[in-house]
Amino acid sequence: MNAVSQVGRFIGSGVKLLATACVLLVAVNYLVGTIDLMPGYAAVYLDDQERIYLAPGCLKEWEGRKSDTLSFLRLSTAKEAFSRKYEADEACRQAGWFAQDGPGIVRIYAVRWGLLPPVRHWWDEPYRTDDGSIIYPNGGASN
Fold first, then answer.
1. Are the beta carbons of 40 and 79 closer than 8 angstroms?
2. Whole-model pTM above 0.85?
3. pLDDT value at position 87?
4. Which one, out of 17, 28, 68, 112, has a CA that is 20 to 30 A from the CA of 134?
5. d(Cα 112, Cα 97) in Å, to the nearest integer?
6. What is the model's pLDDT at position 143?
């Protein structure tokens, strides 16, 4: 057997191995799911009377509910809601506002290595407070 055919076989087996590894990586990426939980810096509305918290995206639905009491909401953070042991609003929780599908394994490593930007969620967006100032969550920069 000559040297050229041996090199060709070696390269061919390397390509097959690399292709198999890629297929396995893609399969694992889709089979193993991750979940991103709402962090403490997320802006939420607190209902101090009912001791619940709501995501800003749930506000319209909450306002439309029938209620026997008059509740006022105040803007705060999830950290405060957690520390006061408030419960997540059930309708908000069921709608998936407090835990969202996270990236696959491949994306997690691509973000870690700087190849892709991190996944953005509603809680990463800046918001305006009652006094008009703008909060940039998680130390984000103002654009």
1. yes
2. no
3. 95
4. 112
5. 25
6. 43
